[in-house]
Design a protein that fits this description.
Length: 118
């Protein structure tokens, strides 16, 4: 892939890359599996490349192609970040890895900490 304007092309590619990484990281955190992320990455690349090639034609500029591919990813990445889903997924995954909820040390009958004197 060659950009007619290298600086603009690299800027657009970097934005595209960051949007895709936000989406893939969120999927990894939510699913707990690398396979979800792998399939999403492959599907994203194939689907967006195919649709963009069809819409713009084979001889289109790489910058324009990258911009068209970035638009839907930017919308989804923005939704993930602005809706708080990324943070919630991160916290959910952290609790899964630790193996307990934030209140795991509390006695559910007394609502008191198990480390506090009785």
């Amino acid at each position: 892939m060659q950009f007619s304007n290298v600086a603009l092309g690299l800027l657009v590619w970097t934005v595209s890359f960051m949007c895709q990484e936000i989406i893939l990281s969120w999927l990894r955190l939510r699913s707990g599996s690398i396979w979800t992320t792998s399939v999403a990455h492959a599907g994203n690349n194939m689907t967006l490349s195919l649709l963009t090639g069809t819409l713009l034609g084979e001889g289109s500029d790489a910058t324009a192609t990258t911009m068209v591919m970035t638009a839907p990813m930017a919308v989804v990445a923005g939704w993930v970040l602005l809706s708080g889903r990324y943070r919630a997924a991160s916290q959910h995954r952290t609790h899964q890895l630790v193996g307990a909820s934030p209140d795991h040390h509390r006695d559910p009958r007394t609502k008191a900490s198990s480390t506090s004197p009785k």
